[in-house]
Write a structure and sequence with these properties.
Length: 83
C-alpha cells in the first residue's frame, strides 16, 4: 500500500501538473471525456479468474462491468433496519 500511495502522490503532484501544462484546454477536456466513457465500461471490482488475453480480457470486462455496477448499487442500498 505504501508503494501505491507513493505512486498516486507522484502522479497527482508531478505527472498530472506537468501534463496539464503541455495540453491545450480542448485536449485536456477531450481526454477527460474519453476517460469518463472508459470508466463506464470498466469493471469496478477485481476479477482474478478473468482471462488475460487482449480480446478475451476486453470481452470479459464488458460483461463484468454491468454486473459489478448492479452489485455496487445493491451493496450501497440502505438496509431495511435503517429506514
Amino acid at each position: 500500500m505504501n508503494d501505491l500511495h507513493e505512486h498516486i502522490k507522484h502522479e497527482s503532484e508531478e505527472d498530472m501538473p506537468r501534463l496539464e501544462k503541455l495540453l491545450s484546454k480542448e485536449e485536456s477536456e477531450a481526454l477527460a471525456r474519453s476517460f469518463e466513457r472508459t470508466k463506464m465500461i470498466t469493471p469496478t471490482r477485481s476479477h482474478p479468474s478473468a482471462p488475460n488475453r487482449p480480446w478475451l480480457e476486453n470481452l470479459a470486462a464488458l460483461l463484468a462491468a454491468p454486473v459489478d455496477r448492479i452489485g455496487d448499487m445493491l451493496r450501497s442500498f440502505p438496509a431495511e433496519s435503517k429506514l
